[in-house]
């Protein structure tokens, strides 16, 4: 997952930066720049880093409004001020690998132009704001490796342009919302290492572009829904250490691009003899991870 996310981050931010960097040389509308620079300095001061050089972390468009803010590994701490929602032209916000804590501000839902949001590897706690479902241009949402709790908001299913949703390594609970099946552009869904329970929603079979589905280390139960047979682009399926039951369904062998399948740690799930040779070829070099069916 780390390499997948790093590649996504690099491609998304480089693409935005290449298109927008020339705007930093234009000074046609100083009023927007002055207002947003003042606001940005206030936010940096509130996060304990007033000395950060703005020109190193921010990009502005031709009207001199803030469009990209990258503050990864800057030693930020404390709660993220709600004023962050006032950068109405912001396209990319990356605050990864800091010590930010407290709730994720609901005001982030006001950033209607936002395409990429990286809040991973912090100490955010509390629920995921349902207001994030208003970010209809969002392509990447990375909230992993925090201390978030509560359910996954069904409103995230409104993000029809989203390509990667990473919520892994949190304390999220409850069922996986069936509405996530509406995210028609999704390529990566990373929900592993939480406390999610209940069945795998059959609606996930609607994610025709999905390549990576990580559901390991939760409390999911029941059998694998047959609708997953529609995931013809799926490469990596991780279901380990849940409470899944029944025989591993034969339709998985018909997924043309599947390369990795992890099902260990599900005592009630077994591997039919007819699938044993196929399964062994998926994860070469890995120790046996499936109990044979009686």
Mind explaining what this structure looks like?
This protein is an alpha/beta fold and 294 residues long. The protein contains 4 helices and 20 strands. A hairpin with a 5-residue loop joins strand 1 and strand 2. The longest helix has 19 residues, at 2-20.
List the helices and strands and how they pair.
Layout lengths: L1 H19 L9 H17 L7 H4 E3 L5 E5 L6 E3 L12 E3 L4 E4 L13 E3 L4 E4 L13 E3 L4 E4 L13 E3 L4 E4 L13 E3 L4 E4 L13 E3 L4 E4 L13 E3 L4 E5 L12 E3 L5 E4 L4 H7 L8 E2 L2
Parallel strand pairs: 2-4, 3-5, 4-6, 5-7, 6-8, 7-9, 8-10, 9-11, 10-12, 11-13, 12-14, 13-15, 14-16, 15-17, 16-18, 17-19, 19-20
Antiparallel strand pairs: 1-2
Summarize the structure.
The protein has 294 residues and is an alpha/beta fold.
The main β sheet shows up as: 10 strands, mixed
Strand content: 15-25%
- Estimate the helix proportion, in percent: 10-25%
Number of helices: 4
Q: Write down the overall geometry.
A: elongated
Key phrases:
elongated; 10-stranded parallel beta sheet; 20 strands; 294 residues
